[in-house]
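Our preliminary data section would be incomplete without showing what the modeling component actually yields. Below, a chain of 288 amino acids is followed by its predicted structure, encoded as tokens that our downstream tools consume directly.
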Amino acid sequence: MTSEISDTSSATGAAERATHRPPRWNKVPEVTVYFWVIKVLCTTVGETAADLLNEKLGLGLTGVSLLMGTLLAVVLVVQFRANAYRAGVYWTAVALISIVGTLVSDNLTDNFGVPLETSTTVFALCLAVVFVLWFRSERTLSIHSVDTPRRECFYWLAVLFTFALGTAAGDLIAERMAVGYWLSAVLFALAIAAVAVAHFAFGMNAVWSFWTAYVLTRPLGASAGDYLSQPAGDGGLGFGTVVTSVLFLAVILALVVFLALTRKDITERERRAHRAGVPSVTREAGGR
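Predicted structure:
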């Protein structure tokens, strides 16, 4: 009897502690129109900035890759240490991972001679493996519950491979298949529209709809970036990588500042909690 009372008391105490435990905040933004606009802009910057850095710094693809990889690692450390979503940190990480994903694909093609067909297939398989491991570990691929370090690791690995896959697939279609930048952008935009119709009109699973669209925005943005920056003789408009990168970075910065001030990309519940100063246990949660 004493044992039963002790067990009951322990269970009650644990339940009370769980009830009063601070919530774990999601570390990524809500999927709004702002999310998709900034995502596409970041993919465009990833393409043009990678070309710009490779041309201007004189470090070669390998040197630029190491530099940008180091910067990305630093920003990801800051992202992981944050106890909730921070617009500036998050979107800086996305912009850098877009550049790094582009450089990974370009290194395989230009430095190691890996055919785009092969790199596209390999990146698709790597992304599939990340999704399988993520789901087996967490039983969800939802970005609405990226609230522990382990889930965040899976999330950023998936993002990296979506950018690398999108770069390889975009180059494969636009350049290797000679479809052209402008037409490639139209084709990828139509593919994204088809995913949206499948989701909203026919009930396609929200998680898979999101990740499919997420992959497709990469070649869309890359094709648009190449179309704007490449010389007219190569099928572009000839604005150059400097003008294109600066223009898109300025728009990204304006939108991120707007979101940081208005918090329009987090849930109303989190917005109220942040105003009230409710702490988070994200960093302390080592598991799910």
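Residues 30-264 form one domain. The two ends are 35 Å apart (CA to CA). Preliminary results of this kind motivate Aim 1 of the renewal.
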